[in-house]
Amino acid sequence: MLETPLLNLIDGSTTATDAHTQIAEQYREGAKIENSAKDFESLLLGNWLQQAEESFAKLPGSDDEENSGSVTAQFQGIAMQSLGTAITAAGGIGLAKMISGQLHTVAEGTAAAEAAMSLPHS
Fold first, then answer.
1. What is the pLDDT of residues 58-90, one digit of tens each?
2. Burial label, 62 (beta-carbon count in 10 A; 0-12, 13-18, 19+)
3. E strand or H helix at 32, and its extent?
């Protein structure tokens, strides 16, 4: 990922300031990928937990009248999303790691392709 700015600096095709800017941008992009993957895992877990909670609330013997209010449903949805976020923050189920790994691979491939296209053709 950092090879292109450093190689350009070594071969003299860029300045140290430009290389530093490119490296900083790559780190920012990496952080965006990590955060997006974690946000996705949190939302997915929250959705799964909310669906599981709703299905367990409909078991025989449950009091449907007590949990039928829209405010109760909203608070339960918020609680399940918060729980999903907490689970992800504690390491999650590995989904964010898999997604970010794939996105990093795609980003590195794109950067390599762009670098290859910017080379002078002889």
1. 656 656 555 566 777 788 888 889 999 999 999
2. exposed
3. helix 16-57
